[in-house]
Every structure is written in structure tokens, then in C-alpha cells.
């Protein structure tokens, strides 16, 4: 494991992981990948987020869609758990709430495959401090 | 593949639905059909936009036009003008109340988003189990900057200048605390993170640790550098297994990267973190009790001074901060104190995370700039009261806080304003109550909690709270007198003035604030023998209306204690001496003949 020995090391590492993550998000290949984040804090898991995450991982494979499914922390929409965020290549992320397997299947078929929005979108109600500012 | 060119997003949050947003969806769909646009335009229902005062809200995609206060009658115009002709419907656009300018693009109206996420900046964004994602978001850059480019004094000055105050509830200036710890000379010092979140209904710290554990680790290391401590301890509740797991993973990853351990960033600063588990005693959120608990002693508080900054864990200088406080630190160092202090009010800078719970539509984890009003939090972000009921009170600060009412809705949320009206910021629990909640019963609930959680070391808290609870119990049983109210108030002040630690000093707050703000409700309990909210069972009576009762006998058959008598086809009567007020009869009555009085 490479150790971070200086601030320069960290900056290099940041740029390296950033481009690695960008790669994951945007894709360098012709066929671009969809990214799904599942909110997996205690509240989300209690509402069934684990099952939803497994469902997405399995179904994306079954339906031959290239995608990355990751977990993340609380998005804050506790009233609408489980919540997921779907980012299609080149599009702004969209958050869906109250995702059960039926809704998940609809999201795959309609939004991920065809780009059609489906009921249950949660509009982002907050701003996260801009990434640029933190440099 | 049919891909829609346009999407119309219609808010289907509870607030907008109450103002006919469902009808708007129908009318939009009809207008789309009429114009043969079925293949090109799709209407989608969304969750709450957090802008309920201007609802119903309709947003056009992809051009992000934001229409407010739309009525069902506007639907066809939106389709024929906006979609077909490509012209905006000006009268439905949002007008900025300050500049009087029309704002159409929702991307330019960031202000309608009343939340700014600073402490929660990475929560719900990064994978908390992957240190790379944290680093990609400039994680550990603040630690690197501090260690290689700044002296401890400079870092502390930056924190002092930012105006950051303790987010655990007390509101002590964070930079000042660090400076005190730094100035004490000792061979060993400690950095402690207080993750013993105990307020009923609060989950801010848990969410941060579950969503962004590295930010806390980084901030603790920065603190270690400033204060001269080489050891960090996180005191976390054993009831938070997921937070513990993610913290452990994060600590392991930070060690592997050399971000914890020896000679961090090539400097001679060494720092490592261990976990200590709490067994769920509320008093251990108090810093001296927390330290005792970590030492393996009973979780009991000490008299302060000496403060932990002078003599804490194992008698060494110890800096104790709360999870949310730490989560703010890295961003302050990266963006500067000026940036941070521009957010918030004069004496309370930055943002505060709240766990919004209770009878509110959008229960959730929110982060708002200090100075946001309770009304904005409850009615815009929270989407208003459940089931269209009337707002009654909001409880802030947990068992140490107070109840605020309608008249407090427009005060800005900051440490001093909340204190001035008899409540407190606390750690961030916010419980909303509606017209069906009895304030006496509410005060009793919190007292029950304090009685249970009092450590028993000092008499006023151990015995006083017990007596308070007994008096409240008596009142909710309908046996209270006016003298009890005086006694309740006097005893509350005694407990506040003479208790040893924060638990006892604040435990009567729910009682005092409800007595102050809902005096008539206490009066009704003791003078009229009535509970206006219909919550206190002992004060209720189930009564059958002889006019409405048809004598179907259903109620007398479901009554578990045979309290209802009457002949077939004759009006029935409930015997209050036998009735246990279970409500089964009222539920079963098909003629609405049974009511509570």
C-alpha cells in the first residue's frame, strides 16, 4: 500500500482517484455506464435498502445493462426510504424515493433503458458546498 | 426507442397535493392528448420540492423553468404556451420578493433550496467505506495543509475566526476550547469525539458517522496537531453498530494510507484513534461523565472546573467535541474562516443539522444555515403538518430543551434566540407536534426519560425529577390541584439551580416551557378536569349519543369489560366506572354515536 508522505502525494492521489472515479461516472468507452447509489444508512437499511441494492446488482446483470451500484450515506429523505440516486451518462443525477423491487424494475425499464422519468422523483432540496470552492 | 423530448414535473408532496396537484396532472395529461403530444411530453409526479409556501410547483424539463402557485385551470395554457409555442407563462413564474425580479430558471433560484450541506457535504454522495472517494472530494487535504503549511496557532486562529460553536448543544466556541487545551502543559493529551447521541429522536451524528466517517477522523487529527495530542478516542454508543463498523473501516484505511500513525504527511506529528463503546446511558453525553465511562468508571459527572481541557481522560488535558463539530472543521480550513462566517447569523455561524421528526410530512435529516426560521424548516422543508392538522408546538433540544409555539415560528434558529425563548439548540433533535398532542403528557414523557437516565449522583436531579414526574402523573390523572402547578414551577427552578451537571440543570425545561406557553392547557387539566387534546385517558369519557344510537348492540358485544348496557333497539349507555377507555366501541360503531368528551 502506498503511503501518503506529503501534501503533494495527497494531491497526486486525489487527482488519480478523481480521474478514476470520473472514469467510473462518465466512462471512457463508447458504451457508457449508468451509476446507481443506494442510500445505506441505518434508516435506509431498515426500510429495505440492502434488498434494493442486491436487486439492482442482479437485475442490471440479467438485463445486460452496464452499471455501477454503490452504497452511500443518508441523503436526508428519511420519509421516502429507500432512496436511490441514478446518474445516466451525461445527465444530472436523479433521486427516486420509496423504491421497492417493483419501482426498481420500473426505473430500470423506463428510466435507465429509455431515459423516461417515472413517478417518485425527489427533487434535490439542498445544496452541497461546491466542489470547486473546497480547492 | 421513444424518448420524450419534454418532461413536466409536478410536485406530489403532501402540501401540493392538498392544493390539487393531482388535478393539475390530470389536466396536463388531457392537454397533452388534445395537442397530440403524447409521444413527446411526459408528466411525472415528484416528491416535495421544499417550497410549499408557493405550491403547487410545476417544473419544466429540460429547460428547468419553474412555475409556482399553479392551478388546475393553468394546465392547458402551460402546454399550449410553454410546450407548443415555446413561450414562458410569465404570470406563473416566481418573483423574487427582494429584487422583484422574475426568475424562471430553477438553477438560478438556489435560494429556494433552504438547505446548505456543510457537515453533511459527503453524506449520500460518497461511498463511506471507500477512502478514495473521500480523497477525491478533497478529503485529508485540510490535514495536509495544516501539517505542512500552518502552525497550530494559525489553525486555531482560523477556527476561532470562523465563529464555529459546539454542535453538541452547549454552543461553546470551538476554537477557544482548542486553544485552552493547547495552552495546558502535559506529557500526554487526548482528543475525544463525543458520539454518544442520546436525545430521543435524534440521529444527526449517527448519519454523519455512517455517511462520512473520514471527515471526523481527519478533524480529530487536526485537533491533535493543534492541541499537542497524539491519541484520539471516539466514544460511541454500542447501539450504533453500522456507524461503528464504518468508523473501523475508515480508521483502518486511514492507517494504511499513512493518514493516521507515525509521521503523518512526512511531519513529526503522530496520531492514532481508538474506539470506546458507550452502553447507552444518556448522562454519558455529558463530557465529564463520558470521560469517567471511558476510564471504566461509573458514568457520573464531575463538578467543573476543572474542565476536561485542563484535566480530563486519565487526568490529562482532553479536548472533547461532538461529531458534527468535527465534521465542519476540514471545510473551514480549506475554504477559510471568512467563507464559513459569511453563513449564518451574527453570533451563530455556519449551518446546523437537524433530525426533523414527529407530525411533519417530510421526516428527514436536514441542514440549514443558522438564522433560518422554524417556519421555513417545518412548513417548507418539512412540508407542513401531517394529515392537514394544525401545528401546535415544536420541541427542540430533546429532554433538555423546550417547546416552542406558533408565536415562535418566525424567530431565527440560532443558539441565543432559542435560549431567549426558553428552549435551546441542543444537539439537533426537532420534534413537531400537532393539535392532538397534549403538552402536559409531553412534558411527562420527557421527565420519564430524565428520571430513568438520571445517574443519581446529586439529590436535586435524582429525587427532584422523580417528584416532578409524580406531580405530572397526578395532573394527567385528573387529580392535580392549582397548588400542584405552583409546586411544579418552584421545584423546577430548584432543580435547575442546584443540579450538578447539564442533565439536571436542563431537565425541567420541558416542564417550564410548556407551563409558560400552554398555561391554559395545565389549567384545563387541574381546574376543569379536561384534557383539551384528548390524550390523557383518565380525563376522557366515552359517551353514547342517545339520539344517534340505534341499539344495534355491537358496542356492548365488543366491550372487553362489559361496561356498556342497553336493550336491543334502545339507546345504550356506557358506565364510566367500569369503562377502561380502550376505544373499541367507538371504532366499531357504524352510526358515529360514540364520542369522547
How would you describe this structure to a colleague?
The complex is a heterodimer of chains A (135) and B (597). Chain A has helices at residues 7-26, 42-46, 49-62, 101-114; strands at residues 34-39, 67-72, 84-87, 94-96, 121-122, 126-128. By secondary structure, chain A is of the alpha+beta class. Chain A has one domain (32-134): Glutaredoxin. In chain A, strands 2-1-3-4-5 form a 5-stranded mixed beta sheet, sandwiched between helices. In chain A, β3 (84-87) and β4 (94-96) form a beta hairpin. The longest helix of chain A is centred in the first third of the chain and has 20 residues, at 7-26. Helix content of chain B is 38%, strand content 15%. Chain B has 23 helices and 20 strands. In chain B, strands 13-12-16-14-15 form a 5-stranded mixed beta sheet. In chain B, strands 2-1-3-4 form a 4-stranded mixed beta sheet, with helices on one face. In chain B, β14 and β15 form a beta hairpin. The longest helix of chain B is centred in the last third of the chain and has 18 residues, at 459-476. Chain B is flat, with a radius of gyration of 28 Å. The N and C termini of chain B lie far apart (63 Å). The mean pLDDT of chain B is 91. Chains A and B meet through α1, α2, β2, β5 and β6 of A and β1, β2, β7, α4 and α5 of B. β6 (126-128) of chain A pairs parallel with β7 of chain B.
* CATH architecture heading of the largest domain in chain B: 3-Layer(aba) Sandwich
Order of helices and strands of chain A: HEHHEEEHEE
Number of helical regions of chain A:
4
Helix count of chain B equals 23
Which overall shape of chain B is indicated by the principal axes computed on the Cα atoms?
flat
Fraction of residues in helix of chain B: 25-40%
CATH level-1 class of chain A? Alpha Beta
Q: What amount of the residues of chain B lies in strands?
A: 15-25%
* Strand order in the sheet with the most strands of chain A: 2-1-3-4-5
Specify the CATH architecture of chain A: 3-Layer(aba) Sandwich
Strand runs of chain B, count: 20
Q: Give the total of domains of chain B.
A: 5
Per DSSP, what share of the residues of chain A sits in E-state strands of 2 or more residues? Answer: 15-25%
